[in-house]
Design goal:
The structure is a single chain. By secondary structure, the chain is an alpha/beta fold. Helix content is 34%, strand content 14%. It has 3 domains: 89 residues, Ubiquitin-like (UB roll); 79 residues, Alpha-Beta Plaits; 352 residues, Rossmann fold, CATH 3.40.50. It has 18 helices and 19 strands. The strands form 6 sheets. The chain has a 5-stranded mixed beta sheet, sandwiched between helices. A 4-stranded parallel beta sheet has the order 11-10-13-16, sandwiched between helices. A 4-stranded mixed beta sheet has the order 12-19-18-17. A hairpin with a 6-residue loop joins strand 3 and strand 4. Helix 8 packs across helix 10 and helix 8 packs across helix 14. The longest helix is centred in the middle third of the chain and has 22 residues. The two termini are 49 Å apart.
Amino acid sequence: MERIKLTIDGTPVEVDPGSTVLDAAKKAGVHVPTLCYHPELRVEGSCRLCVVEVEGMRSLAASCVYPASNGMVVRTNSQTVRRTRKSIVELLLANHPQDCLVCTRHGHCEMQDLSHQLGVRKVRFKGELREMEKDESSVAIVRDPNKCILCGRCLRICEQTQKVSAIGLAYRGSKSVVTTPFNQGLNDGPCVSCGQCIKVCPVAALHERDATEVTWKALNESKIHTVVQVAPAVRTALGEEFGMRPGSLVTEKMVTALRKLGFDRVFDTQFGADLTIIEEGHELLHRLETKENLPLITSCSPGWVKYAEHFFPEMLDNVSTCKSPQQMFGALVKTYYSEKVGIAPENIFHVAIMPCTAKKYEASREEMGRNGLRDVDAVLTTRELAAMIKEAGIDFENLPDSEFDLPLGMSSGAGTIFGVTGGVTEAALRTVYEIKTGKELEEIDFHNVRGFAGVREASIPMNGLTLKVAIANSLGQAEKLLKRVKSGEAEYHFIEIMGCLGGCIGGGGQPFSKDPDIKQKRASALYRQDHLKRVRKAHENPAIKELYRSFLGEPNGQKAHDLLHTHYHARSRY
């Protein structure tokens, strides 16, 4: 295949056919500012901020959509280009609230970065600010249309990647607005609270519903016993908020920071992940034996569960009845742990640190509690935890290491890899294989279920049975996979579905990043921690064994079902 040769700012560049001018500029080491462009989304070229001069063209070209061609001569920093870009930003700012210092995205706002980079020191145009109500109907996501700059990123990820279409563009011209179907609240439509719209929004038009104040209040109340659990994906991303290298494992520093914030006990959601594997593994073995409700589909992603309730209600019987690790852990905190330490459940405030905004929604579900009490009282995203650490004046990078509290802080490597797409499948295989065959695995790394492809498949020989598994990476990929299952085109025993690209490492509550390889870096850290673990199989976790012996009884038994399993509701889309 013949490569394309062109010149970018005097530098010869070769790119593959199909590349854009923006691709060529990156190859040449030239930074071209963008706004509507996002590496995970289809390009549209609507904002025109990435314009460049192409020799022989009368007008400027949007480099993100303009195809590179042989012999092309491009200038990215001419006076005309710079003036045009600056004018575009000024026009956007003219219609944008000037409340940067108190904005939730202050310091992490692409509009701020672009204004600084392009030398915008005044706004020459007078615009018209919108005066629309915030949409605060969702327990997970706040939508502020007054700050929307109409870049369209949220629309594309919701419609194209997630196949939800909870938001859309209404009206035309200067009246255009991103809104919900029938102008209802996010809570009244098919929104699954995944937060992918937040992740790609360049400003604060979308952000998570803050839970830091209620958490501070509990931490400052001497009569309240505060307990915190931390999800696997948090420990491989939290360091980014403090300038550390992406993919840095900060587990022990994170534990120290949580103690400094004032939490009485610091536990690990990975314990809940190990517990989920025991329950889900036995559920799978039972379904294989009875041949009922196959394939078994995972239930640890609350975004996926709500998506199934809206878009695939006919397949809810296939979804595992197991609660997610967060909610299994929550049930234990208000029962097992409460009894163990002699503190009444109503005097325990339980916080979960999650990479996912949908976890806020999940904790609020009616069935996730008992006797009028929530199992999880507050959910903080990775970003919210970082904000609290900064507010407390903690020097995170120089903190000493410390360990999780026992027994609910003891976990296996299988629990660690729950944070990456394919990890639930691999963790389940490590346990299900050994229970089914009675033999110890010679190789516990299932590389054939790893990776970031949209849909992955594997067949595992298992005591006379070839276990067929599939992994869907994002809700859009889940839609494709489930349509094939429903039509009879594909047949599996076990399907893992994660609501977000990359799994929890790419969750809507993770630190904002422009690094195109950020998911790979975070995933590598989790696999590295898995290998460092002394115990790497959920069923070999001593604390899990003791929990069943002294409290739960048999896996999938009556008490386990009462505490650790749940049910779902078919929902209309609007």
